[in-house]
């Protein structure tokens, strides 16, 4: 993307690109479109698995463009969705890849969780992790000392 000359927008674009590059690298993806779809699908699934307050707390800590992706299409009155099992979460993410399913969805989702862990406050990440069922929480990398 080109520079707009508006520091906030240019910084938001740069930050989103950093996130996409980290997702692509962590998930072993060589296509930016795949990285974007993975980030978007995982953020949407995570947002919909959380209660409204926790979803909003997480959203407040995301960079501007990533926050827009996160909130796109959100219906807070329909969250958290049920059932909320790991298999349902993975299926929700995989729905963004119908034509070309993720080969290792656990690794891919864990890559997005890892990027979140690097860029969101540790206390918020702990709250989000504890809001998830253990099998899904297990996809989240352990906090680094």
Kindly describe this structure:
The chain has 145 residues and is mainly α. Helices cover 63% and strands 0% of the residues. It contains 8 helices and no strands. It has helices spanning 7-26, 32-49, 52-60, 64-71, 86-94, 105-119, 122-130, 134-137. Helix 1 packs across helix 2 (32-49) and helix 1 (7-26) runs antiparallel to helix 6 (105-119). The longest helix has 20 residues, at 7-26. The radius of gyration is 15 Å and the shape is globular. The N and C termini lie far apart (35 Å).
The percentage of residues in β strands lies in: under 5%
Mean of all residue-level pLDDT scores:
92
Which term fits the overall shape? globular
Q: What are the secondary-structure elements, in order, as H or E?
A: HHHHHHHH
Derived from helix and strand composition plus strand pairing, the structural class reads mainly alpha
What are the segments in which pLDDT stays under 50 over at least 5 consecutive residues?
A: none
Outline the biggest β-sheet.
Answer: none
Give the helices and strands, then pairings:
Layout: H1 7-26, H2 32-49, H3 52-60, H4 64-71, H5 86-94, H6 105-119, H7 122-130, H8 134-137
Helix pairs in contact: 1-2, 1-6, 2-3, 2-5, 2-6, 3-7
What's the gist of this structure?
With 145 residues, the protein is mainly alpha-helical. 63% of the residues lie in helices and 0% in strands.
List keywords for this structure.
145 residues, mainly alpha, 8 helices, 0% strand
């Amino acid at each position: 993307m080109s520079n707009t000359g508006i520091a906030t927008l240019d910084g938001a674009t740069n930050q989103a690109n950093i996130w996409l590059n980290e997702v692509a690298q962590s998930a072993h993806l060589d296509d930016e479109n795949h990285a974007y779809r993975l980030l978007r699908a995982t953020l949407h699934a995570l947002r919909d698995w959380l209660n409204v307050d926790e979803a909003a707390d997480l959203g407040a800590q995301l960079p501007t463009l990533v926050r827009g992706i996160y909130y796109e299409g959100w219906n807070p009155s329909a969250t958290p969705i049920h059932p909320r099992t790991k298999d349902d979460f993975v299926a929700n993410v995989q729905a963004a890849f119908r034509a070309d399913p993720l080969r290792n969805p656990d690794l891919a989702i864990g890559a997005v969780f890892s990027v979140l862990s690097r860029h969101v406050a540790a206390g918020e990440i702990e709250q989000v992790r504890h809001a998830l069922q253990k099998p899904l929480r297990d996809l989240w990398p352990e906090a680094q000392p």
